[in-house]
Amino acid sequence: MMANDEPGTTATARQEDGFVEIVFSSVISPTAVEAQVDACRDETCECCTPAFRDKVDEIAMVLDDHSRVRIYGTISRDEVLQNMASCVPKLAESQ
Description:
CATH class: Alpha Beta
Number of helices: 3
Shape: globular
Oligomer: single chain
Helix content: 25-40%
Number of strands: 4
Order of helices and strands: EEHHEEH
């Protein structure tokens, strides 16, 4: 499962004003997303590099029909997609 903007993928990311929003498909459980967000916030994850963390001010989770994560800071959509490439397969495996 990949993280990109193709239909049928596990997650998509879009650049918004001041943040990048990741929308996870329903195949990824909200519990798995929340656990990953907590690990990223606590800096105990294996996916966020120090350079990535330096650009992030806040990571917020939004629960609605799909799990959404907003990453605030001076970070680009492409940087988030690159980081997600190591993170999303782990989320899919945790199902």
